Fold this protein.
Amino acid sequence: MAVTPKSLALNDQITGTTNAATDTLYTANNGTAQIDAFTAINTTGGAVDISIYILPAGVAATAADPVIVSVPANSQVIIADLIGHKIPKGGAIEAFAGTTNVLRVIASGVEFT
């Protein structure tokens, strides 16, 4: 089994604003992936909630429970609750925010192939 470091999301801007319109940040196409770091960055003057989903293949965000974090104004938050979570092969990390185009996400991890 090979272990490959991966950028799971590289400064991705969140545009989706509902669980029916999430942004796909990463899809585990090559094998199972594990999150090692996950940071949300707020570029606006007010706090904004982000909802993050770790989904198996074929499961919509509307059918799953998210990790919800409030990101304070003009700051960044390490989302420790996601560290160590595994994304199954074919699964994805998806997210939406309370306001469009003000949050960015940086995430890294490894893929097991």
